[in-house]
Amino acid sequence: MDQAGRSSETPTEMSAATDATENPTEMTAVTDTTETPTAAIAATRRTPHWAVFLGLAGLIVVFDQLTKAWLVSNVTPGEVVDVVGDFVRLVFNKNSGALFGMFRDNAVLFGIVSLGVVGLIVAYHARVGRSLYLSLALGFLLGGALGNLIDRLRLGYVVDFVDMGIGDFRWYTFNVADAAISTAIVMLVGAAIIPSLARLGDRRSDG
After folding, report:
1. DSSP E strand boundaries for 28-174
2. Where are any strands of DSSP class E within the chain?
3. Burial (CB count <10 Å: 0-12, 13-18, 19+), residue 58
């Protein structure tokens, strides 16, 4: 009876069984290929908005440097140009300090610090996932940091020119890069206070 049972198997079936036993890696490979697309899709959903982050930062740097170049070419140091009466004026100011003119005469130190800050911004963005809100906030921050860093490395000081205030009560003179950094800070503080903001544009839950 045993001999008859064995003889009922066709050569093809016996060959297939033998191949499956001798090549277990082939069966594993088939299983792995069914899981790979899912893993790839999940990884893509976690990838930050690099194009938005870098694109926004690049636009800010270009706009910042163009406005500074225009100011240097058209306004002499110490000259005051009224834009909106006395409320908004253009003043060519050489800032050797930090944001809004604080801690003056430390341009080299702040230039070195800025290099480290740029690295931290990029590293942090790599970990934020698909949050469009955070990519925009960090893009503003990176663009502002790079705009002022270029000035410090190229000139030894930062060109500030927007002067706002009423009469003798004036805000710190600032530039486009400073405005971008301030915008980023407000956005990041907002995300800390209202965590749901950080999930805007997050596609991790997409089907």
Report:
1. 80-84, 88-95, 158-166, 169-170
2. 80-84, 88-95, 158-166, 169-170
3. middle
Catalytic residue among 64, 151, 163, 178: 178
Identify the DSSP state of 103.
Answer: S
**3-state percent helix, strand, coil for the chain, nearest multiple of 5:** 65, 10, 25
Angstrom distances, CA of residue 83 to CA of 87, 92, 180:
8, 14, 21
Contact 37, 195 (CB under 8 A): no
What are the extents of the domains in the chain?
Answer: 2-43, 48-199
Q: Is 206 a catalytic residue?
A: no
- Find the catalytic residue in 64, 151, 160, 163: 160
Q: Which residues contact 199 (CB under 8 A, 6 or more apart)?
A: 131, 133
What is the per-residue pLDDT across 126-178, written as a single tens digit (0 to 9) for each? 998 889 999 999 999 999 999 999 998 888 889 999 999 988 888 888 999 99
How wide is the angle at C-alpha 108 spanned by C-alphas 61 and 156, nearest 5°?
A: 60
Q: Is 151 a catalytic residue?
A: no
d(CA 148, CA 151): 5
The percentage of the chain sitting over the pLDDT mark of 90, rounded to a whole number, equals: 48
CA distance 22 to 16: 10
